[in-house]
Amino acid sequence: MLTRIDHIGIACHDLDATVAFYRETYGFTDVHIEVNEEQGVREAMLKINETGDGAASYLQLLEPTREDSTVAKWLAKNGEGVHHIAFGTDGDVQDEADGIAAKGVRVLYDSPRRGSMGSRITFLHPKDAHGVLTELVQKA
Amino acid sequence: MLTRIDHIGIACHDLDATVAFYRETYGFTDVHIEVNEEQGVREAMLKINETGDGAASYLQLLEPTREDSTVAKWLAKNGEGVHHIAFGTDGDVQDEADGIAAKGVRVLYDSPRRGSMGSRITFLHPKDAHGVLTELVQKA
After folding, report:
1. Distances from the Cα of A94 to the Cαs of A107, B112, B115, B120, in angstroms?
2. What's the rounded Cα separation, in Å, for the pair A131 and A111?
3. Which of B3, B49, B54, B127 has its CA 20 to 30 A from that of A56?
4. Rounded Cα distance, B105 and B124, in Å
5. Distance of CA B70 to CAs A113, B36, B59, B65, B87, Å?
6. Residues A22, A25, A26, A32: what is their CA dihedral angle, to the nearest 10 degrees?
7. CA A93, B5, A39, B127: dihedral to nearest 10 degrees?
């Protein structure tokens, strides 16, 4: 079952400058930064609020680390902005994805990959989801 | 102070079909529908989770009701997808906006307008916010 908005993924050119913008403009000071080599991004998770399922909602700021990453290509086409949204599941993310696939939505990964802060993630095809690139997250 | 992700605003061509997609695909069944004539949208608020500040996070699905609405123009240019994000404040939304304006971010409304479910809202210019059209919400 999907029990929360886990995060909003936002693509940016300069992670440090964008983190500073969100911290100084809005006061979002709870920041975790990591590199995901597989995804080709350096990313910041800004915790915004606790959620009723015992987890939290974040902004995820994404800066590409190489030009062939999907986020780099997306930025070149669209400029900075919202790249994807993510829902958190209280179960196994592959089971969740299988249930959604059975309803006719294409799942982009054959098996879950590593997401932010040790999570397991997969993505759904935006063309099957009214134009929204949608991620499913099972937190660590 | 901004204390939650209030909602993610998603533009769509057919509100009823998109609500049905989110309900049937993800199980989001808590739906409030209203028309905002001033904004030129028919909208659905899908409650996703409670938040730690005593409020909740929603998906806001937006269908234009007239061709000259900002959402209609946005859809014609971009197609369906994420239109804006919104943070909830625990204070007065105009005070929040004034504090953000003082940091150099343009606020789009001279005074707050009516948002979903009786809220008071304003918007920040996306060019001042790393490409993200950002709404501030004071709930009813």
Report:
1. 10, 43, 37, 40
2. 23
3. B127
4. 7
5. 38, 12, 19, 10, 20
6. 30
7. 150
Please pick, among A39, A83, A84, A96, the residue that the annotation labels catalytic: A84
Element (H, E) at A97: helix A93-101
Q: DSSP per residue over B33-82, as a string?
A: EEEETTTTEEEEEEEEEEBTTS-EEEEEEEEESSTTSHHHHHHHHH-SEE
Record: contact A26-B2, CB cut-off 8 A: yes
Beta carbons within 10 angstroms of residue B89's beta carbon? 23
Enter the DSSP assignment of A65.
S
pLDDT tens digits along A32-91? 999 999 999 999 999 999 999 999 999 999 999 999 999 999 999 999 999 999 999 999
* List of chain A residues whose C-beta atoms are within 8 Å of the C-beta of residue B50: 51-52
The two most distant CA atoms of chain B are separated, in Å, by: 44
Per-residue confidence (pLDDT) for residue B17, from 0 to 100: 98
Report how far residue B80's alpha carbon sits from residue B62's, in angstroms, rounded to the nearest whole number.
Answer: 10
Q: What is the pLDDT of residues A15-45, one digit of tens each?
A: 999 999 999 999 999 999 999 999 999 999 9
The secondary structure element, H or E, covering residue B94 is: helix B93-101
Chain A residues within an 8 Å CB radius of B131? 10, 12, 79-81
| CATH 3.10.180.10 applies to domain A2-138 | yes
Q: How far is CA B132 from the centre of its chain?
A: 12
Cβ B61 vs Cβ B12: under 8 Å: yes
Predicted complex ipTM exceeds 0.85: yes
Q: How far is A85 from chain B (nearest CA, A)?
A: 8
